[in-house]
Amino acid sequence: MHDGSVLEERGVPSLAICTEVFFAAGKVQARVLGHNELEPLTVAHPIQSLTSDQIRGRAEGIVDRIVERLMK
Known about the structure:
The chain contains 3 helices and 2 strands. The protein is mostly helical. It has a two-stranded parallel sheet with strand order 1-2. The longest helix is centred in the last third of the chain and has 19 residues. The radius of gyration is 13 Å and the shape is globular.
């Protein structure tokens, strides 16, 4: 969230991606950083135990949402 807020302040459209268990924490962090509009996109939890191919699959599953969010 911190990186996204810094980028937004510099005029660079950005977003954060986290697993759903960290969504609420991400929202709180965005609010503390003064960026209530930065709502993280979520993927299923966990990710640390996944293979590279499984992570790639999760990423491919949210590409449309990423593009949509960045085009707002």
